[in-house]
Write a structure and sequence with these properties.
The complex is a heterodimer.
Chain A (H helix, E strand, L loop, with lengths): L11 E10 L2 E11 L4 E5 L6 H8 L7 E6 L2 E3 L4 H6 L2 E4 L11 H6 L13 H14 L15 H13 L5 E5 L7 H16 L3 E5 L3 H7 L2 E6 L2 E7 L5 H9 L17 E9 L7 E6 L3 E5 L6 H8 L7 E6 L2 E3 L4 H7 L1 E4 L3 H4 L7 H6 L3 H4 L7 H14 L16 H13 L5 E5 L7 H16 L3 E5 L3 H7 L2 E6 L2 E7 L5 H9 L9
Parallel strand pairs in A: 3-8, 3-9, 6-7, 7-8, 13-18, 13-19, 16-17, 17-18
Antiparallel strand pairs in A: 1-2, 1-4, 4-5, 9-10, 11-12, 11-14, 14-15, 19-20
Chain B lengths: L1 H24 L6 H26 L7 H18 L5 H25 L4 H20 L11 H5 L4 E2 L2 E2 H19 L1 H11 L1 H6 L4 H27 L10 H11 L11 H20 L4 H36 L2
Antiparallel strand pairs in B: 1-2
Classes of the chains: A alpha/beta, B mainly alpha.
Chain lengths: 508, 325
């Protein structure tokens, strides 16, 4: 669509770019064209390959195949400096800036104007930095330290830094994720200014309202593949959503029809001063309840509060018809609610500890007598769950750090199952693992549910949510926006609710 | 774990080599009676290193142990001067309690006010020394002011080993039991190994660190009485700078400054290694400068071992991070 438009030639183009990681094809022959004075929106689900494209464009990743073209000439970006020298600059989701340095120093770090003797010309630097800041309408003094600025101003500094290298292509990766409504408006104005200066802008966002508001063109990726591109004026939201999610959900999800039983967990009015508000639902025996939403919708924050890592300001829970007050993770474990965190590398296993000690850690209060651990019982419990998960290790006494990644995952799962929970919360259970392991995890979840365990699954992957869940709660900006079941569960409805689009296809 | 055990074997080898070198110059050093004397002399370092090991294991550090020792020792000496009739077991209990209280102050500041441990204990180190000065106006409590029973307790020998040495043995055994067989010991390893993961398993990270400071303080207090009684003198500056020897013993013993890795055996061996250097080198006419240089070199070699182990682990983590992309 729309390739043969009467545009000027693209400033930057990707042609058939492929990038493979062990077990994952992150980009599979993708095409992308960026034109001067135009905003191109890159649209796709999590895992579609957007971040990989950004890293390829900025010289952080080297493609395995395909060409990068600048003004029609093939180029290579072996390092980030090369990309920068070619005029490609990115403002990342979490821009790296330095709190203790001044705004001017942040803007010119690495390419500061030099005076005599090769020393940094601080005056020239400050004047130039102020020029750039004034140019983008930022009311920021270049001499103040970065740590005295708010988050929106920091963003403007990041943009000023991008412009200080004479950028021709500006990549904005989820630039509005952390901004307030007013700051977002200011960002839009800035984007308009950059357009007027003839910069080519790649705008990555999950929010359809802003894509329709500021983008001129779109490119859609799905599962690392190029799906289509064209003018925003020629497409509707409904069609865009279809392109984005339009895969058949008939991938092999081994969801077994589970016997859904009585109510197990009732959550009422759970609220937090800053993270989420009025979360309420009922979870039944043998049920898998999906929590869908964009990154930052407050799902993980709610789960952490449910298990006592943070305290809710309001709300109550009943578990098996008993009111439970959970003040700490220890309370949650004792009550029978466990949480398998998203970042299993950082929050999962204790690598320097032996397998059996990792597995029994949350069960120790039950396993110990008068504060003394019971070796034999610890090994028996560990053996039971590691055998069930088919964990391969020379001995249960070896450290978890010496195991392969997949086996480390199994240790983490065994650890939680060994507490014999009533409710298990899995946060992004298959994030970053290969297809084969994904299937194993899904199979296992299904098995747990069929044995009568109640499962809450937080996931940002639509096929996983649709394939595994009996019911789905969609969260957006800290609130429950939908509870979907049966025929209501389609990719389109999920994306609509999560991105805040009304059912008529208008931006909300 | 296997790596740790091999590190302890290396340390045992280093100690034997050191003893052999000293024996070739001065055979009298390795007679059983002298080795027992060296062990007894190193006992305070061993006891303090065991306390420090628990603190460092949980990603903290306690720089106030020597000041705690001096203050507790002074309080015991003053009580002995004013009330010579107070029996030694009561004094020992008092020393344990007072030391634990000072440790609890450190632990409380780290836990509830989340001040970095190095800052907290630098502050309390100075405060504890200052309190001794306030108590005494800088004057000394000397041998002739102390009762005979007070001074005799650590020196009394049972089966040829003075009580001071036996106490080091008993503390080692107790700590060995706590670290390997109790839920508290397990919590220390978990908090140091990965505090983020420990939280989810129901461990209270701050409370665990608090308890590590209480243990360290309690052992410092115990050592305070033993030290003052053994040397039969108490003043503001006793054991000045000793906290650095204690930390050094831990580091040489393979306790990871980054937390999560430590063994009781390692801490004891680290203390013994330093103790032997201090006792042996003067005997074979090595100048004080070289004694310091050799201790320093031992610390750097030990840290190099630690960071090597940490680096190879880092590579694995990076690989999985890339995989997750």
């Amino acid at each position: 669509m729309g390739h043969e438009q009467t545009h000027a030639a693209p400033v930057l183009a990707l042609d058939g770019i492929t990038k493979t990681f062990p077990g994952v094809k992150a980009l599979d022959g993708v095409t992308l064209e960026l034109y001067p004075g135009q905003v191109t929106a890159l649209i796709g689900e999590n895992g579609a390959g957007k971040s990989t494209v950004v890293k390829t464009l900025t010289g952080i990743y080297q493609p395995d195949g395909g060409r990068i073209l600048v003004d029609g000439q093939e180029v290579r970006f072996p390092t980030a400096q090369d990309a920068s020298a070619a005029g490609v600059t990115a403002i990342h989701q979490e821009t790296v800036l330095f709190d203790e340095l001044s705004v001017a120093e942040n803007i010119f770090l690495g390419h500061a104007p030099k005076g005599r003797l090769g020393l940094i010309d601080r005056n020239a630097m400050r004047v130039k930095a102020q020029d750039i800041l004034d140019g983008i309408g930022a009311e920021i003094d270049a001499a103040v330290r970065l740590k005295d600025l708010g988050i929106a101003s920091r963003h403007l500094v990041a943009i000023a830094r991008a412009l200080s290298v004479e950028a021709r292509v500006v990549i904005m990766d989820e630039p509005t994720a952390a901004l307030s409504r007013k700051e977002i408006e200011e960002l839009y104005e800035l984007v308009e200014k950059l357009k007027a200066q003839g910069k080519a802008i790649l705008f990555i966002s999950h929010k359809f309202d802003e894509i329709f508001r500021i983008a001129d063109r779109y490119t859609v990726f799905r599962d690392g593949q190029y799906i289509g591109a064209g003018e925003m004026a020629d497409i509707t939201e409904a069609d865009l959503v279809k392109m984005m999610v339009g895969r058949s959900v008939d991938q092999i999800f081994p969801k077994r029809a589970a016997q859904i039983g009585e109510d197990v967990l009732i959550v009422a009015g759970y609220s937090h001063p800053t993270e989420f508000e009025d979360i309420h639902f009922t979870l039944r025996r043998g049920e898998i309840l999906g929590f869908y939403g964009l990154v930052g919708a407050g799902r993980s924050e709610f789960m952490q509060s449910l298990i006592g890592v943070t305290r809710p300001s309001k709300g109550a829970i009943r578990l098996n018809d008993k009111v439970q007050v959970i003040r700490s993770p220890a309370d949650a474990i004792a009550a029978g609610i466990v949480y398998v965190p998203e970042d299993r590398g950082k929050q999962g296993a204790i690598l320097d500890m032996p397998i059996f000690q990792n597995v029994t850690l949350p069960s120790l209060p039950r396993l110990s007598k008068n504060g003394f651990t019971q070796m034999a019982e610890e090994f028996a419990l560990t053996r039971r769950y590691t055998e069930r998960l088919d964990l391969r290790a020379a001995s249960l006494d070896t450290t978890v750090g010496s195991l392969s990644g997949g086996n480390q995952q199994k240790v983490v799962i065994a650890k939680w199952l060994a507490t014999q929970p009533t409710v298990i919360i899995l946060d992004e259970p298959t994030k970053g693992i290969d297809i084969g392991s994904k299937a194993a995890v899904h199979d296992f979840m299904s098995e747990l549910a069929s044995e009568g365990l109640s499962v809450i699954m937080v996931s940002s992957e639509i096929p996983e949510i649709l394939g595994m869940s009996d019911r789905v709660i969609v969260m957006r900006e800290g609130r429950m926006v939908a509870e979907l079941e049966g025929d209501e569960l389609t990719p389109e409805t999920l994306v609509r609710h999560a991105a805040g689009i009304s059912s008529k296809g208008e931006a909300a | 774990m296997t790596q740790l055990k091999s590190r302890e074997a290396i340390l045992v080898g280093a100690i034997l080599l050191l003893l052999a070198l000293v024996a070739s110059r001065f055979p009298g050093f390795v007679t059983p009676s002298n080795l027992l004397a060296v062990f007894t002399d190193t006992a305070p370092l061993i006891i303090l290193a065991l306390g420090q090991m628990v603190v460092i294991l949980t990603r903290s550090i306690d720089l106030s142990v020597a000041a705690n020792l001096a203050l507790t020792g002074m309080v015991c000496a003053l009580i002995n001067v004013s009330f010579p009739g107070v029996p030694v077991p009561v004094l020992v209990a008092l020393a344990l309690g007072l030391g634990a209280l000072m440790g609890a102050i450190n632990g409380f500041l780290v836990w509830k006010l989340t001040i970095p441990p190095i800052v907290v204990t630098l502050g309390t180190m100075t405060i504890f020394r200052g309190i001794i000065f306030l108590l005494t106006d800088g004057s000394w409590v000397n041998s002739h002011q102390m009762s005979a029973a007070f001074k005799a307790f650590p020196r009394e020998t049972i089966f040829g080993l003075p009580i001071l040495g036996w106490i080091a043995v008993i503390v080692t055994l107790i700590l060995g039991l706590v670290m390997s067989r109790t839920t508290l010991g397990r919590a220390f390893f978990a908090v140091g190994g990965n505090p983020h993961a420990a939280v989810y398993t129901g461990i209270n990270v701050g409370r665990t660190q608090f308890l590590s400071f209480v243990i360290s303080g309690m052992l410092a207090g115990l050592t305070g009485y033993l030290w003052v009684a053994r040397y039969a003198v108490a003043f503001v500056d006793i054991a000045g700078g000793f906290e650095l020897d204690v930390v050094a013993a831990c580091v040489i013993g393979g306790v990871s400054i980054a937390g999560g890795i430590a063994t009781v055996g390692g801490a004891v061996l680290g203390a013994l290694f330093l103790g032997i250097i201090k006792n042996a080198l003067p005997v074979i006419d090595v100048s004080p400068f070289w004694q310091l240089a050799i201790s320093g070199a031992a610390i750097i070699i030990a840290v190099t071992f630690n960071s090597r182990a940490g680096r190879s682990k880092g590579r694995v983590i990076l690989k999985s991070a890339e995989h997750a992309q």
